[in-house]
Structures are given as C-alpha cells and as structure tokens.
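F.,

This is the one I mentioned.
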C-alpha cells in the first residue's frame, strides 16, 4: 500500500511544508557544471542529420530527416536566436546557464550553425540526392532536359507559373520590397537596354505551387526540376527588353516569436491576432544565399535587409530543403521504413469480432496505459471521447487542447457532446507557438457549438494533457480520467511516441476536478493526491523525490533515479541530480533534445548516464522513476525539465500505480539504457557519440522496432486466449 506521506510529498499547502533548501548545496558544486542549452540544441539537430547520413536507413526516410533538420533549424532561428538577439538589442538580461556574454553565445551559435548547414547541404548533394537518383528519383537541373521536355515545361510555366509571378523592381520609384520570412526568392540583376543602366529586381518563388515540377515519369522512375530553376530560365518573359545579367536564390528568416503582455490586455484573442500580424514583419535574423552569389548582389541584400555578415549563410545546392517532405508522397515503400499499423490496446479490444468496445467498462475494470503510436490513438483516446459524446449517461466533459489537427475528430467529439446537451469545457491554449491562428479558429468554432471555452490562467500556458468525463452510474457520479504525455492530435499521434493513462481512480478524479476548476475559475488549489502540478508544486515535488533517493543512498538503501524528457535544462533539477550522484545514486537520463547536464564528471556526476534515441518516431513521452527503497514510484506527464515548463506553464504528472504498468515502464527504460541498444551517449564535454554498431560490426537493437514487436506479441497473446 502506498502511504499518503509519499503521495503528498511536496504537494501540500505551499507554505506549510516547503522543501528545505537551507543547506548550502551550491558550495559543493563547481562552476561550469552546465552545458550551453543553445549549443546542446544544435547538437540535437546534428543527431537528426546523422540519421540522414546513415546509409543503413531507407533513402526516402533519409530525405525526410533532411527536411526535419531544415524545419527544426528554421524554428530555432525564428525563436531561440531571435529571442537572444531581441534581448540584446532591447538591453534585457539574456538568460544563460554558462555565464558567457550574449554576443559570445550568438557567435558560438553562428559558428556551429554554419558548420551544420554546410554539412546538411553536403548530405543532400553528396549522399541522398545521388542515392535517390540511383533508385530512379532524380532532381535535375534545367541543363539536363532535352528539347521536348523544355518545350513541355515552358508550356507549364506559361499556363501555371507565369500568371502568379510578381517581379518587383528596385529603383528610385520602387523601394526595396518586403521579403517575407522563409520565402524562397530570386535576386535578379538586369540591364536596361535603352539606358544601359543596371537594375535590381526581386522575384518570389510562389509557395502555393509544387516546389518540384515533374519532368517525366516511367514506372518507378521520376524526374523533377526545382521550380526556381524553371522560373530562372524564363526570366526574359518577365523582363522583356531587358538583358538578364545574373540571378541567384536567397531566403530570409525573420523573428517570429510572439510576445504578449497578458496582464496589460483586456482581450487575449484580439491581442494575439494583432501580434500574429506583427510577426510577419519581425526583423531579419538569417540570410541564406547560394554560394555562387556575386558580391554586388550580396552587399545590396545585406544593406537593404540590415543584416550582419555573421547572419549570412552561403550554401551549395538547393536552399530550403523542407521541400524534401514532398517526396514522401511517392509510392516507393521499399525506400521507406516497413509499415507499422498501430494495434488496439488489449484492454480496449472488443469482445466480439467487428464489435464496438465499451471503453468505460474496460477502464472501470482496471487502469489502462496506452503507448502511442504502437497502440492506436483512434481506438483509445479518440474512441473514449467519441463514446463520451454519444453516451446518454455522460453529463460533462472537460478537456485541455494545446495542439490539434485540421478537421480534428477530437474537436468534433466535443462539439457533438455540446450539441447533445452535455456540459462541455474546452481549455484551448491559443498561445501554442506556431499554432496560434489555428487554435483561435478552433476556439471560435467550439464556442459557436455551445462549448464553454476558456484560455487558462493569465501569464501561464496550459500545456498539460487532460480529459475528464463525468458519467452517472446507478445514481452516483463517476469520473473517467485521461492524463497523457502528448497532444490530443490524431495526426502527430502516428509519429510521436507518447503514453496515456486512463483511470477511474477517485483520487485522480478529484485532482482533475480541482485542477479544471482552478483553470476555468478563480480557485487556487493547493492540494493534489496523485498529481504533481506546475507551476506551484511540480519542481518542488520532484526535488523532494530526488533528494529522498540521495538520503536513501547515504543510508545504504536501494536508490536510483530515471528520467525521460525532451529537454533537461532546469538548474535546480540538474543540481539535485548532481547531489544524488555524489551520494552514490545511480541516475539515468533519457533525453531527446537539449541536455545541459554534464554526465561522467569525477566527483560530480560519475554516477549519471545520459542517452538519446532518435528514429522513425519522435520520442516525446516524459517518465520520472524513483527506486524509493524498493517501492518504485513512477510518474508520467507533460512536463520537460525547463524553466518554462516548471515556472510558466500548467503541467501535470500522474503517479502510475498498477504493477503491470510499472513493469512495462521499467522494462522500456531498461532496454533504452542498455549498451546493446542503439543510442547516442553524452560525454562530459557535451559531445554526443552514436553507438549503433556492436564490437562484431553488427547493428545494435533498435528500441522502437523492439517496442513494435512487443506490442504485437501482446495482441497475439490476447487473440489466442
């Protein structure tokens, strides 16, 4: 039996039992004990790039990793680099955990980013593009076309491209045009045949047209021409009577971070919409140009865009390799990972073939832990909400929505429930970065259907993944709860690895009821039983649990800490792990992205191991496991170990208690941290080293493949019974 003293640790009244940090711990810890978070993020994107470079992976998957790298780096510049630059310009303090000057941080970022972008370009031109060509998928230049192909593509240009092009001249009567962020452009120098004067023009490559124009197709063989090449070879049609002197491709990245002072606005939605309009005109922070651009054109762009030499990236080959996502539409299964169809969780499988499962009955029987995308989101989370919407005994549904997809069945289920007369509360986080506009649309659609829509607490993003269904059974109300590690998004659920817990536990039901009341009203809840909730209690609760392991180790009791997160940055959590390591606690950290913790430092962190796993699925779940003197405690939830998650977001972790679930989570961690499993190992110098081959030269086991097989075995075992 689990004692309430453990469940309530760090979760009680904020002022009655605070975690004692009076001991001068910092005196025991050395300076320079953190890795730079921005450089650590670039190291994460390097791991993505290493997958693209891996000849053992299918070619279209490698192309997809190149596109992911490009998309990731765009967001890094638009948000992280832009935020640093904005703070420097405005004189605000720049947060850094390594004690270096902001300008030095930006210089280091620039150096690493330049090297990575060149490596990225080379991976495409030297590795993936030739490999695709050998497999019958060619990206060719205009010079490789024969006369018939050129004629046919010219007809396409005239009919589909030319009408939407907008050449913009730059002269005394035409000021330098606005260059939108992430747009692909041609910088063109021309000579006026009448006056002999040289002029400059900018031409935007239309983003609504396919980036790769099909040249020919014969069976599995297909050839494409980049759209910018097609346009560049017909510039005479756009500038008749002019001599085309030169043309080059360039691309601009702008600051697209959104900053809203919520306590100074009366209408969050209106303020956010205004800020989204401003985002389009954010200051430039990166200029990508082809490496053959002449100095005259480059100097003009630098001057007009008010950008520094450090922010210019000269790159060979194609710019904006996000376009490689388009190759995913090709029907070449042999060039992809073997297909995996998510199974229905054993507990949610219908009793009769072709029957419909009763999810409420299954959850009443026992807690259900679902592992996406190995187990289906559609037949678990989505089916749960759809059953709640049509069930006449369901009285109310409350849910958080951080990110969801277009035409979302989750949103439709909430609408159906409201239209059926149920009480429905949707907490829509309209400030979810880059999903702000979509979430405003969802919020208004839900409101029109009669759903009670709220936007959470001022100054905090609501990031927790919670759903609460209230059902009347035999004259009493029962709470059906779902707490997840990932968004209620059917699309990303197919590629994001996440866990979700379904339970009718009364403590969890009361916790969620209180938390939703806090989010939708004015209640300030101080007590939770099976939840750890940020911003008030989560960090403090984790620090207590980590410190208990430290004290257990000092007392000679079994002690260990295991944490799986996307990012490990928070200094208080890291320092607590250092202290635990110094006391002899075995600490294992499984991190996908940023890690500021230095493992393996003598006297500080020699008992800490850090691993990273990347693959076909994006590792997204968060798990926190504590040995607790032989009575393991494991939490899952939405929170990463970052300042924003612990201080500026509403996050929730739930305690997992079913022995089978504890065993499943422990086994997953055992396999992830095993030396026989393919992963990246972090060294004390911040360098990640890939370990994917054994001493015999054979590939190490793949965690995600093994998990797929394990889930399939459970399903087959159920079918046999």
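My design for it:
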């Amino acid at each position: 039996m689990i004692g309430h003293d453990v469940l309530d640790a760090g979760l009680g009244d904020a002022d009655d039992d605070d975690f004692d940090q009076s001991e001068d711990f910092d005196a025991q810890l050395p300076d320079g004990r953190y890795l730079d978070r921005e450089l650590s993020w670039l190291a994460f994107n390097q791991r993505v790039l290493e997958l693209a470079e891996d000849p053992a992976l299918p070619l279209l998957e490698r192309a997809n990793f190149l596109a992911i790298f490009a998309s990731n780096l765009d967001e890094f510049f638009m948000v992280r680099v832009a935020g640093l630059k904005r703070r420097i310009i405005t004189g605000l303090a720049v947060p850094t955990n390594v004690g270096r000057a902001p300008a030095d941080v930006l210089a280091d970022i620039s150096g690493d980013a330049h090297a990575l972008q060149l490596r990225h370009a080379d991976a495409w031109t030297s590795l993936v593009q030739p490999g695709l060509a050998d497999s019958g998928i060619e990206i060719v230049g205009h010079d490789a076309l024969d006369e018939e192909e050129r004629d046919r593509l010219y007809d396409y240009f005239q009919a589909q491209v030319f009408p939407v092009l907008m050449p913009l001249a730059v002269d005394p009567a035409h000021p330098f045009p606005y260059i939108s962020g992430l747009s692909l452009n041609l910088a063109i120098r021309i000579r006026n045949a009448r006056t002999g004067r040289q002029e400059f023009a900018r031409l935007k490559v239309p983003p609504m047209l396919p980036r790769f124009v099909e040249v020919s197709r014969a069976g599995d063989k297909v050839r494409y021409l980049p759209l910018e090449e097609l346009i560049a070879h017909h510039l005479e049609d756009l500038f008749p009577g002019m001599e085309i002197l030169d043309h080059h491709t360039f691309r601009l990245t702008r600051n697209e971070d959104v900053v809203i002072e919520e306590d100074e606005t009366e209408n969050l939605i209106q303020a956010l919409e205004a800020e989204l309009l401003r985002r389009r005109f954010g200051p430039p922070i990166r200029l990508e140009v082809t490496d053959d651009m002449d100095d005259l054109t480059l100097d003009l762009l630098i001057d007009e865009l008010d950008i520094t030499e450090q922010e210019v990236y000269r790159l060979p080959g194609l710019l904006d390799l996000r376009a490689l996502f388009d190759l995913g539409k090709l029907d070449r299964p042999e060039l992809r990972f073997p297909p995996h169809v998510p199974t229905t969780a054993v507990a949610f499988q219908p009793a009769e073939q072709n029957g419909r499962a009763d999810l409420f009955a299954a959850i009443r029987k026992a807690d259900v832990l679902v592992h996406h995308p190995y187990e289906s989101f559609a037949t678990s989370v989505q089916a749960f909400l759809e059953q709640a919407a049509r069930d006449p005994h369901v009285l109310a549904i409350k849910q958080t929505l951080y990110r969801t997809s277009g035409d979302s069945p989750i949103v439709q289920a909430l609408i159906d429930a409201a239209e059926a007369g149920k009480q429905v509360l949707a907490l829509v986080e309209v400030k979810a970065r880059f999903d702000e506009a979509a979430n405003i649309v969802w919020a208004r659609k839900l409101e029109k259907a009669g759903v009670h829509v709220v936007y959470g607490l001022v100054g905090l993003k609501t990031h927790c993944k919670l759903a609460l269904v209230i059902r009347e059974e035999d004259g009493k109300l029962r709470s059906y709860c779902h707490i997840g590690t990932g968004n209620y998004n059917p699309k990303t659920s197919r590629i994001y690895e996440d866990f979700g817990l379904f339970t009718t536990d009364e403590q969890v039901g009361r916790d969620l009821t209180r938390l939703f009341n806090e989010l939708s009203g004015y209640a300030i809840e101080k007590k939770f039983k099976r939840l750890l909730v940020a911003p008030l209690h989560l960090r403090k609760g984790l620090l207590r649990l980590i410190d208990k392991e430290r004290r257990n180790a000092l007392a000679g009791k079994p002690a260990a800490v295991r944490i799986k997160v996307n990012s490990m940055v928070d200094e208080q959590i890291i320092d607590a792990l250092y202290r635990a390591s110094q006391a002899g606690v075995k600490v294992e950290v499984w991190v996908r992205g940023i890690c500021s913790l230095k493992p393996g430092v003598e006297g500080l962190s020699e008992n800490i191991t850090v691993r990273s796993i990347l693959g076909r699925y994006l590792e997204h779940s968060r798990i926190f496991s504590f040995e607790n003197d032989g009575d393991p405690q494991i939490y899952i939830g939405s929170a990463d170990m970052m300042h924003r998650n612990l201080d500026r977001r509403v996050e929730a972790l739930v305690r997992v208690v079913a022995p089978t679930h504890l065993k499943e989570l422990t086994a997953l961690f055992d396999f992830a941290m095993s030396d026989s499993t393919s992963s990246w190992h972090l060294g004390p110098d911040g360098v990640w080293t890939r370990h994917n081959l054994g001493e015999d030269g054979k590939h190490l086991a793949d965690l995600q493949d093994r998990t797929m097989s394990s889930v399939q075995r459970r399903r087959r075992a159920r079918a046999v019974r």
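Residues 346-528 form a domain with the Endonuclease; Chain A fold (CATH 3.30.870.10).

Talk soon.
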